[in-house]
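Entry 0007
Protein: CotJA protein
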Amino acid sequence: MHTHYKTYYPYSSPFDPCEPIHEKTFSTPPHLYIDYQPPNLPQFSPMEALKAGTLWKPLYDPYFNSYEKAKGGLAR
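Output (structure tokens):
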């Protein structure tokens, strides 16, 4: 099982002048988890594809950073 969000724990020095961030999260794109392009993938309509940046629905990633909530987006 994979997730599109990964977490890592950077080193925090006791001498850092700022409050340390103990956990950081980043997003990985969906195409990393598809070995090859299978036939008959579901597609967006041409207008939706222009907005999404991809023709194929399984490759769409509506990236939202960790400080904002997902505000809708295109349906998968």
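Curator remark: The chain has one domain: 5-59. Residues 5-59 form one domain.
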